[in-house]
Design brief:
Helices cover 80% and strands 0% of the residues. The longest helix is centred in the C-terminal third of the chain and has 33 residues. It is globular and about 60 Å long.
């Protein structure tokens, strides 16, 4: 009798929960966008409320992650290496962690975002969101590509989308570096410069972990 992969054998597959966790990324980043945009407009009270929503979504994702790790089977083989699965989950979790870190850091102080760099900061944020959107196009198919019936056409499509994630992250690096250079040379108080520079770095980390997560999916394809 052929081995039945766990994806089809269990009532709730770990990959279903993984996708549920990934959906929190989409929700969280959408709120993050509104939070930072509102902050840049000087509406700190509304931005603070949105930051609390980001933190709540991150907590919800943590509960899903805990459920996955608590119920991950130890005696039935996954269709992929368990270590790779857990590393993917960890990278997804890091995306959410850095989204939370970003809003926490953002509201440590009310820094007026100078008009000279406002568009640069928002372009940095928008490129990160593009990177996340590309990762979403990868992760949505994760359950299919680890099944033994997945097509070569789908695998090739996912590999191309993973390259897209890498490209978006690289493009964001360029935007982030330009933002940092321009910010560093502003004629404003040093504390505001530091606040804005670290904010830019935290935003960039979101894209980096999306790239790392996409690479873990690539590891699954390479099995």
């Amino acid at each position: 009798m052929p081995r039945i992969p766990i994806v089809g054998a269990l009532r709730t597959s770990p990959f279903d929960k993984l996708l549920e966790h990934a959906r929190k990324i989409k929700e969280c980043v959408a709120v993050l966008k509104d939070c930072i945009t509102t902050y840049c407009e000087g509406n700190y009270e509304e931005s603070e409320k949105l930051s609390e929503k980001v933190m709540a979504l991150e907590h919800e994702a943590d509960l899903i992650k805990g459920n996955i790790t608590a119920h991950l089977p130890k005696t039935i083989l996954l269709p992929v290496d368990t270590g790779v699965f857990l590393r993917l989950l960890s990278e997804q979790d890091s995306i959410l962690d850095f989204a939370e870190d970003t809003v926490v850091w953002l509201h440590f102080r009310k820094t007026k975002v100078p008009k000279e760099i406002k568009d640069d900061l928002l372009n940095h944020l928008y490129k990160v969101i593009e990177c996340i959107e590309s990762f979403e196009k990868v992760i949505i198919h994760v359950k299919e590509i680890v099944s033994f019936a997945s097509s070569e056409k789908l695998r090739d499509k996912i590999k191309e989308t993973i390259k897209e994630v890498h490209l978006k992250e690289w493009e964001d690096d360029q935007i982030g570096n330009a933002f940092a250079k321009k910010t560093f040379n502003l004629s404003i108080d040093p504390l505001s410069i530091y606040h804005l520079l670290k904010l830019g770095n935290l935003i960039g980390q979101i894209a980096k972990h999306a790239e790392h997560a996409a690479d873990r999916v690539r590891d699954m394809i390479a099995r």
